[in-house]
Amino acid sequence: MADDASARLRLLVRDASSNKLADLRIREVEIVEGDLSDRASLDRATTGVDVIVSAVQGGPDVIIEGQLALAEAGKRNGVRRILPSDFGLDVFKATPGEHAAFNMRAEADARIAQLGLESIHILQGAFLDLFAPGSPMIDYDKGVVTFWGDGNSPIEATSVEDTARMTARLALDRGVPGGKFAFYGDRLSFNEAADVAETLTGKTFERRSLGTEGALRAALAAADGQDKIMLGYALYMTNGQTALSNVQNGRYPEIRLQTFKGVLADRLRS
User: Fold this and answer.
1) DSSP 208
2) Alpha carbon distance 73, 71 (integer Å)
3) Per-residue pLDDT tens for 109-121?
4) Where are the alpha helices (DSSP H) in 5-54?
5) Contact by Cβ (8 Å): 216, 238
6) What DSSP line would sit under 46-72, residue for residue?
């Protein structure tokens, strides 16, 4: 698999009969039905594979134990490289124990590293959907932007499509060493996102702070479940602790990463 044109794709899925896979079958993508808890299916999925791309979501049974089982299968079957399901802010800069989702990913990454597989950790910041219609942070119908702090903290973000394109290139690029690989499509604050939204929609957007970083930390301490995870993301986006560094946006000049303005313009046209 020297380049994208010669790459062959194999997917591990829970339900191989799903109609959602029809387009992939037309493109001759190989489908393997299985589960992260099923050793036999993991062996079927990883035998003859050069690179594993993990895009799983869930609790510790998936993020930690499931990914470790997948990596172990890869190690058994001669896989060269794994891209764990990090995809986000710089998990390695997070305060240990402060964010449940980051804690799980950090533990999974550490345990996978012990296997001796080459790992590349894709860090693309937030997804640009954070600022687009449908986001709980920006109400385009009411014209209200909500955030913690003063709304001026810059946040790196990338479209889902561009993240997928970069992931595909990275997976096959033997010149990329193991470790963190950071990139982003745009770097903007909630106030700057509101400025873009005002320009493209012609509406005026109210800027509404939910409180200081101290108030956010208090809310985080009192929260549980999914609310705690989302407030944890808000904390790191507000204080910039997990901001991306050593960004490599220009490694693949053929991939022109979309800005928020471009993503929003596309959404508004559709």
Assistant:
1) E
2) 5
3) 999 999 999 999 9
4) 22-26, 39-46
5) yes
6) HTT-SEEE----SSHIIIIIIHHHHHH
